[in-house]
Amino acid sequence: MKNTVQEDWVENACKSLNQHKINYLGYDLPLEKKVDYLKRTNPEKEFYTYYGSICYKEGEQVKFYGDKKDKAYNIPKYKLTPL
User: Does the reported pTM lie above 0.90?
Assistant: First the structure.
């Protein structure tokens, strides 16, 4: 069934997406490729690993890549491994 309200809505929603602000990293990618991509697209951030998860410092807080923007944690820097 073509030209339904749902199809029109989805088509218009997809047109309005800014493809440059969408980041997707597959879980099956090797860590090196993920880190390379993150460093190229976010040159102002220093990335770390913490128990296998990729994170970055924002002020005194640590945020994990892929977490909601409002989540932050107090993790001492000595527990983070630089990438």
Answer: no
Question: Domain boundaries in the chain?
Answer: 25-82
Q: How far apart are CA 53 and CA 21, in angstroms?
A: 22
Please check whether residue 48 is in contact with residue 82, taking contact to mean a CB–CB distance below 8 angstroms: yes
DSSP result, 11-67: HHHHHH--GGG-----TTS-HHHHHHHHHHH-TT--EEEETTEEEEEETTEEEETTS
Long-range contacts, stretch 77-80, CB < 8 angstroms, 24+ apart: 79/50, 80/48, 80/49, 80/50, 80/55
Distance CA 5, CA 26 (A): 32
- Residue-wise pLDDT for 32-67, tens only, equals 787 888 888 888 888 898 988 888 888 888 988 777
